[in-house]
């Protein structure tokens, strides 16, 4: 059976963030009006290449409730009018913000957008009033530069596990 490594990373102080400027050609907009179908679309658009499927297989009503809750925020990155990537922030406990999903559309990988978009996500997480900690997880099935990007922005690994693919 194939295995993957899952890394859990956190940032406990906004001063730990080693921000990278976002390219001027990349615009990011928050979806202030939740649209569950938009989140499904973005999840597929970005996640298919990385074998994201768990949300598509689970209870769609639970997923919809999460997306439509006040604890959830969605941001979409655009390049020349096209969706270039997105991220979701989730803070169900009011203090710990998870960068729930983060990624670029395959066409835009390698254009220098990843570090800047991640910095935008981190900034938005820390600007959410009441945030004490920002965290995320990634795995060995993700883009080869993902873990390094997270660490370069200031995240530290706090847990690692091996799981079946």
Automatic annotation (TrEMBL):
Keyword Transferase among record annotations: yes
Keyword Transferase: yes
InterPro entries noted in UniProt: Acyl_CoA_acyltransferase, GNAT_dom
Pfam families reported for this sequence: Acetyltransf_1 (PF00583)
GO molecular function per UniProt: acyltransferase activity, transferring groups other than amino-acyl groups
Keywords in alphabetical order: Transferase
Name this protein carries in UniProt: GNAT family N-acetyltransferase
Organism, as annotated: Kushneria marisflavi
